[in-house]
Amino acid sequence: MNNSENQAHPRCAVIILNWNGADLLRRFLPSVMLNTEKSVGRVIVADNGSTDTSLEVLHNEFPEVEVWAFDKNYGFAGGYNRCLERAKEQGYEYAVLLNSDVETPPCWLSPLTEYLDSHPDVAAAQPKILSAGDHARFEYAGAAGGYLDRNGYPYCRGRIFDTCEADSGQYDDTVDIFWATGAALLVRVDKYLEVGGLDEDFFAHMEEIDLCWRILLTGSRIVAIPQSRVFHLGGGSLPASNPRKTYLNFRNNLLLLHKNLPDGDRGRKLFQRRLLDTIAWTKFVLTGDWGNAAAVFRAHRHFRRMRRAYTEHPSVNLLKVFPHCRHNILADYYLRRRRTFSQL
């Protein structure tokens, strides 16, 4: 750690979890350091057992940044769980989970913290997520706030499947959302720990949706606050077509539904998802994409084993009561050709 833990700090810890991202730190950390209001948040880099030159870069090029160094790669979920426990010990009220490939403009943090200050029933929030490569277009991972459809497929205001809209101010209202992106997620530290943090069995991908689902089940709200915006590179760890990413997304989506649906709905919904995943698997096979086809098969096989660890389920099906969850996003997008959120 570069700075003393006993040094007085603001109420929000802006935590960048880094793993072998020396080049990303050089590119994106300067904007975070420059544009994070020091009276509002302290920037911390938590290194997840990097084996590249990340720690050397932080020590030599960013000596003013506080560094929490872990002994190994605990994954996105495990790494941030350790970070939030430490943030609690150090007295932080809020924490931002900020990806290492995010650029921040001036005064990006205060609209988030100020909204939570004035709305005690809100436990988490996200800014508007725009593309680092095109600041006028929404970025895939979160856009202007996330939802789930009736089958558990994630989509966003500003992004449905791979279609990312241009930002013309159409989503500049502050709204309740089902999930906030893990690319830039502000959360109350106490609420994060109360619901058990991120599920480390997920390792990476969709774990923030699972966290947000559990937060909503406590009666707290999650909002998108477009008065704050950040610019996300995306694909900084794994490209969308990588079989490892396909495996994690398919497996974790099944775990997400299994964990958070009540007994009366869970079996039927998982059966429907298996059928839909079979269609996706067939498409991979027909196009000769054997790596991703194998990833889907492996995801279902591992899900069947992993689900045994989850024996407690909620009594409420949020997919039936939360706004926008009534949609069938596959049918809307592919059959009805509704490619934007405003067309739903």
General description of the model:
This protein is α/β, with parallel strands linked by helices. The chain is 39% helix and 19% strand. It has helices spanning 22-35, 54-61, 75-89, 110-118, 189-194, 207-217, 243-260, 263-286, 290-306, 318-321, 329-335; strands at 12-18, 41-47, 66-69, 94-98, 102-103, 122-131, 146-148, 154-156, 159-160, 163-164, 175-176, 184-188, 221-232. Helix 6 (207-217) runs parallel beside helix 7 and helix 8 (263-286) packs antiparallel against helix 9. The protein is globular.
Can you tag this structure with a few keywords?
19% strand; 13 strands; alpha/beta; 344 residues; globular; two-stranded antiparallel ribbon; disordered N terminus; 11 helices; 9-stranded mixed beta sheet
Task: State the end-to-end CA separation.
Answer: 48 Å
Q: Which runs of at least 5 residues are low in confidence (pLDDT < 50)?
A: 1-6
Give the proportion of residues in helices: 25-40%
- Overall pLDDT metric: 95
Strand runs, count:
13
Rg calculated over all Cα atoms: 19 Å
Strand content: 15-25%
Query: Shape from CA axes?
Result: globular
Number of helices: 11
| SSE order, one letter for each helix or strand | EHEHEHEEHEEEEEEEHHEHHHHH
Structural class from helices and strands? alpha/beta
Main beta sheet: strand number and arrangement? 9 strands, mixed
